[in-house]
Amino acid sequence: MSGGAIEYISEEYEVSRDSSVLKTSIKNQITCVLKGTMSNSYKVNFTWEFDWNEPKSQGVFEITGHISIKSSKNAFAPVKIDVKLTEDNRTITKHLGGGCYTHYFVTYEYSLTPHLVPPEEPPYHVIFAPSDKNDAILVVDGKKLHVNKAFLSYHSDFFRALFSSNFKEGQMDEIPIGDVSYEDFALLLSSFYPNPVTPTDETVERFLEIANRFLVSSAMSIAERHLMNNSRINNEYMLYLADEYGMPTLLEKCIRRLNIMETPKNFKRSTQYKRMSDSTKTKVLDRIRVPGAEKRTTPIKSIFTWKFYWDKLKSQGVDELSGHITVTSSNNRFTPTKIGVRLTENGQVVTSEIECLPYYVYVSYVYSFTPLLMPKFRRNRWITTMRCFCHLDKNAHDSGVSTERSFMLTKRSMSSPITSDFFHALFLIEFQRRTNGMKFQFGDVSFDDFALLLSTIYPNPVLPCDRTVEKLLEMGHRFLVSSVISNSENHLLRYSKFNTEKIIWLADEYNMPRLLDNCIRRLNTLEKANKMKKSDKYEQLSDETKLKIVDRIFKLSHI
Predict the structure, then answer these.
(1) Are 108 and 130 found together in one domain?
(2) Contacts of 74 (CB under 8 A, 6+ apart)
(3) Name one Pfam family in it (predicted).
(4) Looking at residues 293-316, what average pLDDT do you find?
């Protein structure tokens, strides 16, 4: 949700004894219902009711601005009304007119500015404080960051080399890091620490720059996810970032958005375009449609575009839709055409160019996803997971864990107390000699579930989705992997399609206070709060959370 002003101008409405106004408008996810009724004294009672639940879920805590209303027949002087919308104040009321007027013709406009909750200052002084979990000190801008060598080495080849015996810095008590600010460097490291700090639109470009410099691949994945799902950066600049820092999925998405003839042409003149690679420039130029094609001799090339929304399927774990669209012309202006379809993103555009005979073309189409081409879950996630635990020199795997099958993992990284207190205890130094080369047997957990848990804390992490988040919370809690709990909380806050009742239960069950407070605030009507209290999940909540919900009901009831 952008912090800029949201402006709306209404059409003209009539209010009289015989007719009242009840109009609904929607602008930038803000719904406004205008009610206007005339009293016996010929005054008009205007009421604007605002629904801004969607912006609120994106971090908006209040909206300020003004409403201006005027009469086209000068039945009353133009009036400007100050507006301050909060969680408890969503209605604006004004009484106007009076006297001899029996009909009012009015228009109104508003200018409203959303205000985001100020971001909390990241607790870098806590994350990088002296601790028995840390064994190295990095000095940036004169400030010290206490870190764990093994943990940083596993997430970055830069730090793996820095801490090796081949570099003199690796033997120093305090290692200086130059040409980077403390805040930027701390943000980079904290992105893959437990309770991770994520980039914002204001920090993401610098974040990508230093992630690229310090070879932190997991940070690149985190930035790409933010840009694809949560960013308000304009498409042209996002395309440049995707090209500059090698994010192919984001690049493909941005190029698909260049689906209007003038957009690529204007972009071609921009500064960002000049800084792009030749490969990306070629893809952009391919999106430009030549104007005046309709004046050419037959056959005429017609462009057909379909846009598919399937976010509900994506929230259930579906990663891809495959099939075809068949287009036909009832007046035989072109040959029936079958177009192959592969959808990987919600809102994805499918475009096809078909040669038609000139003049009017009547078309119809059907799309089909046959059982052979049904939505399928992406298998390469699990291939990536398997590669994490194979024998690789870089990983220096020296311990094995056995569930239904066995795989290798590195004691050097997993024994870090920053990763997990459970694995730190398992690989304690005093019994390393006994455990070298041995396998550890874990019961009551499947191979896939355990591999999914570990792959969330490896470089190029597998991120939570609605299909996996509940299992990740269960596993993260059992094996004391706090970063998994934090990443799952972030998913539930920003991306999940679960209903509020289920998210409240998960927040309570796995101790995610920030998520719980957010969900309690979503119960912003008495109907929603009572629905939560009557749900099956309510009985499974702790007494403390039940009390918060009951307090919410009392507050909404104005008791």
Answers:
(1) no
(2) none
(3) BTB
(4) 68
Q: Do 72 and 183 belong together in one domain?
A: no
Q: Is residue 533 part of a domain?
A: yes
For 344-386, what is each residue's pLDDT tens digit? 777 788 888 887 766 555 666 666 644 333 334 444 444 444 4
Final residue belonging to a domain, choices 285, 309, 329? 285
302: which 2 tokens?
């017609």
Q: How many CA atoms lie within 13 A of 513 on its CB side?
A: 2
User: Does one domain contain both 70 and 30?
Assistant: yes
**What is the signed CA dihedral for 268, 273, 279, 283, rounded to 10 degrees?**
-40
Whether residue 426 lies inside any domain: the answer is no
| Helix (H/G/I), strand (E/B), else coil: 258 | coil
Provide the b/e sequence for 368-377 (b: ≥16 CB within 10 Å): eeeeebebee
Give me 319's structure tokens: 């990663």
- Whether 89 is covered by a domain: the verdict is yes
Q: Which two tokens stand for residue 41?
A: 């004294």
- pLDDT in the model for residue 264: 57
Does 150 share its domain with 206? yes
**Paired tokens of 425:** 């205890």
DSSP per-residue string spanning 353-364: EEEE-SS---EE
Whether 259 and 312 map to the same domain: the answer is: no
What 3-state class would DSSP assign to 548?
helix
Q: Which residues contact 451 (CB under 8 A, 6 or more apart)?
A: 382, 385, 386, 388, 389, 407
pTM of the full predicted structure?
A: 0.53
Domain boundary, last residue among 116, 143, 173: 116
The answer to whether residue 162 sits within a structural domain is yes
Give the range of the structural domain holding residue 205, as residue numbers without chain letter.
124-285
- Both tokens assigned to 487: 């990443």
CA–CA–CA angle 25, 30, 32 (5° rounding): 40
Residue 308 bridge partners (DSSP): 348
What 8-state DSSP symbol labels residue 179?
S
- DSSP secondary structure code for residue 73 in this structure: T
What the block records as the tokens of 145 is: 């960051």
Q: Are 188 and 216 in contact (CB under 8 A)?
A: yes
Write the CB contacts of 261 (distance below 8 Å, at least 6 apart in sequence): 288, 289, 291
Using an 8 Å Cβ cutoff, are 300 and 292 in contact?
no
314 vs 321: CA distance, rounded Å: 10
Residue, of 263 and 349, whose pLDDT is higher: 349
Q: CATH number of the domain that 359 lies in?
A: 2.60.40
Query: Could you report the per-residue pLDDT of 26-85, keeping only the tens digit for each?
Result: 888 888 998 888 877 778 888 999 988 878 777 788 899 999 999 887 778 899 999 999
The verdict on 528 and 543 lying in the same domain is yes
Residues 265 and 309 in one domain: no
Q: How many domains does the chain have?
A: 4
Q: Are 524 and 532 in contact (CB under 8 A)?
A: no
